Amino acid sequence: MNRACPELEPLLLDRAAGELGEADTARLERHLAGCPGCRAEADAVSLALSLAALPPASAAERAAAGQGAREALLRHRAGRMQRRFAGRMALAVAASAAFALAVPWYLLSRHAPVGPPVAPPAAVDAATAWELPDLDAAWAAAAAADPEAFPEPEPEMLFAELQEIDLDLE
Amino acid sequence: MQGSSMADRESRAGPGLRVLEGGRAAETDGGLLRDFLAGDEGAFEELWRRHHATVHALARRYARTPEDALDLTQRAFLRAVGAARRAVRRAGPDFPFRPWLLRIAANLGKNHLRDESRWRRAPVRDLDQAADGAAPADELLSRRDRERRVREAVLLLPRRQREVLTLRIDAGLSYAEVARTLGIAEGNARVHFHLAARRLAELVRAGEDEP
Questions:
Q1: For residue A103, which phi and psi values (nearest 5 degrees)?
Q2: CA A23 to CA A32: how far, in whole Å?
Q3: Quick check: B127 and A54 CB within 8 A?
Q4: What residues 140-159 of chain B have any CB closer than 8 A to a CB of chain A?
Q5: Residue B81's CB: how many other CB atoms inside 10 A?
Q6: Is A18 left (phi over 0), alpha (psi -120 to 50) or beta?
Q7: Which of B38-42, B87-91, B152-156 has the lowest mean pLDDT?
Q8: Could you say which DSSP state residue B171 is in?
Q9: Are A45 and B201 in contact (CB under 8 A)?
Q10: pLDDT at B45 over 80
Q11: Three-class secondary structure of residue A130 per DSSP
Q12: How many CB atoms lie within 10 A of CB B113?
């Protein structure tokens, strides 16, 4: 099998890429006419690139791509709104978290001892000095109370209240 | 006022370019991008008009269906304009939007390939069109089989080789444009193209040697 001339191989590849200048192209074509090895290499590279190349886009594909700007803009707007929403959600979550942390911190800091110890207030003294009262004495005092102070309700009054309730139900 | 506006637009367009009344053909990509980021959706449509065909051609390489290709194209544009916000503020109307866009499209294609586990089912098969009807059936079948194998091999090339090759044969970029797009030297782009093309040619030759 004939091999390509090594020094010309880069030019063969440039030729296949369509990157060869006019002068070099003319010179190479003259060489190819008389060198089967270079001719075979040039054909193989050209064939490989033609097989690798995609078929041209159909008219429908080209039309769809040409009109794709509007859809792309819609996607752009949707993405922007989504980002804004996500940003606001993140802000809301951050604010909630800050609030949730701040409240206990504030409450704790209010009750935390600050500065030198101070004397307990009078209410604390009273609470610590409290003792269970004498319940028997309290009961006896209640039994001795005047029953007239708590009169029985009159029947008419009860009936009137009942009527009012009925009216509300109608 | 109008004069200064015209001058401003002309300076954005660069010397030697004239702004057509009612059109935006002479505005630079960077200027359009800046306008779009300021809320002018017409500027986006002009950018799309200029570059969608190249991006779409690149996206088709990685897509299984026409819908995939269009989706990739749109995502490339959106990612490109979104990611350029800070860069365009610094570079202004001279911002090189096209290389930026194509590089993002190539990256998205690569990611799509990675994420798409079914790509091995010949990703471009659905896009394929009927070949020359005059060819005999077995020859046609053979050609199709070879296309499938070579196109799969393109997707298996090392990353840089694949990027260079697809920017050249799909997007139609010159070595110089490929180099600018990928941020590499032109000679480097040429070498990567050579390596890729040689590898594909070896594959074709190996296929011909099979019984």
A1: -65, -55
A2: 14
A3: yes
A4: 143, 146-147, 150-151, 153-154
A5: 23
A6: left
A7: B87-91
A8: S
A9: yes
A10: yes
A11: coil
A12: 17
pLDDT in tens, B152-196: 999 999 999 999 999 999 999 999 999 999 999 999 999 999 999
Residue where the block lists tokens 């030759």: B205
pLDDT reported for residue B115 = 80
What are the backbone dihedrals phi and psi of residue B80, each rounded to the nearest 5 degrees, phi first? -65, -45
Q: What is the CA radius of gyration of chain A?
A: 50
**CA B135 from chain center: how many Å?**
32
- Chain A to chain B, count of Cβ pairs less than 8 Å apart? 112
CA dihedral B127, B130, B136, B142 (to 10 degrees): -10
| Res A41: pLDDT | 93
Q: Which whole number is the average pLDDT over B103-122?
A: 76
Does A66 reach chain B within 8 Å, measured CB to CB? Answer: yes
Cβ(B30)–Cβ(A59) under 8 Å?
no
Rg value, chain B, Cα: 20
pTM above 0.90, yes or no: no
What are the pLDDT digits (tens) for A65-116?
A: 988 888 888 888 887 777 777 878 888 888 888 888 888 888 887 776 656 6
Query: Tokens representing A22?
Result: 């006019």
Searching chain A, which residue's CA lies closest to the CA of residue B174?
A: A19
Most B CBs within 10 A among A39, A54, A83, hence the mutation to make, goes to A54
Give the span between the Cα atoms of B183 and B168, in whole angstroms: 15
Distance from the B49 Cα atom to the nearest Cα atom in chain A, whole angstroms: 7
Per-residue tokens: B13: 């367009």
Dihedral over alpha carbons B143, B146, B151, B153 (to 10 degrees):
-170
